[in-house]
Amino acid sequence: MVKKLVVALVMATLIMNVVGCTQSASPATQSASPATQSASPATQSASPATQSDVVAISLGWQENESGQRFAQGFIAGCTELGWKYVLSNANYDPKLQSDQIDAFIKMHPKALFITASDPIGITAAVQRAIDAGIPVFLADSYIAGVKAVTSIASNNFGMGMYTMKYIAKAIGGKGKVGMINLPNNETWDLRTLGALVALKDYPDIQVVSWAYDPTGAVTPRQGVENMLTANPDIKAVWCSWDGAAMEGALAAQAHGMNNVIFTGIDGGPRAFEQIQAGGPFKLTCAQSFYWMAYMDVMYAKDYLEGKKVPRFVVSPVYAVTKEVLDAVPASLKATDYDMPGMDVKLNWTPVL
Prior knowledge:
- This protein is α/β, with parallel strands linked by helices.
- It folds into 2 domains: 2-154 and 289-315, Response regulator (Rossmann fold, 3-Layer(aba) Sandwich), CATH 3.40.50; 156-287 and 341-346, Rossmann fold.
- Helices cover 42% and strands 20% of the residues.
- The chain is built from 13 helices and 15 strands.
- The strands form 3 sheets. Strands 1-14-7-6-5-3-4 form a 7-stranded mixed β-sheet, sandwiched between helices. It has a 6-stranded mixed β-sheet with strand order 9-8-10-11-12-15, with helices on both faces. Strands 2-13 form a two-stranded antiparallel ribbon.
- Strand 5 (112-115), helix 5 and strand 6 (136-139) form a beta-alpha-beta unit.
- The longest helix has 17 residues, at 65-81.
- The N and C termini lie far apart (48 Å).
- Mean pLDDT is 88; it is low at 1-43 and 45-50.
């Protein structure tokens, strides 16, 4: 009874938000450029039965720049196509996101777009949507065992390898390196696994690790501060996401350890600003959040029109350093890099 009440309340809230969400959307300013993607040969098409006129957007989070960028991409695509949409935010809670997806199933949208708070934690709910005949499109992760129409994600394993190899080369292949890991989500944990594989080529590097505390009892900055205090000879800190790299770099500066190298993964205004300032934060693997979401919507359009669409797409990732940011012309904004076609204008080439 409680679960039914929760779902009913969530559904009522979502329905009330349809008009407001549609009015608040801003149109996309760039056209799609699928040539920049890497898609698997496997494609699919369908002529799905007519459903409601609304699409649903289930965000795993929206509290930070990446979550907001995903929302912007989804909204821009829907607005460009004239689609009405409802949007929910799970705030990193897979139980809440599962309830929100169940509410969307009752609405029977013509397409369901998802960024997963935790791929494993929402698998059952996503399967229920697919079983209900709702075409599902994923951004940021793949969900094993479910047949989504299209899944778009970065090469998380590759980003972990790339950033760790950058560190290894910068410190001459030896010394002590810290790792700030993010094991809470299967997709994000792939970054750590990639970094560890990269380290196999550098036996003279010693690793000290700290895993993100989801309770918030210890912040990433505190985790780095503790690591630096216990390991004053540390040469670099590999971070699974930019938030840890930004906070960690500030901690290093506060300790007078300005030569410690920090790398991150994500990209966005705050990370770019800190990197360009020239401090310890040296490199981020910038993901194409807007592009993933926007292209999901475009693939949904094609799918609903009976056209073939890719089942798996690897989205572009860019290695962003101070040198890269300093080279951006004044007439362009580096933070627009993940909008379709902007990488060409910026002369940025994906590294993954």
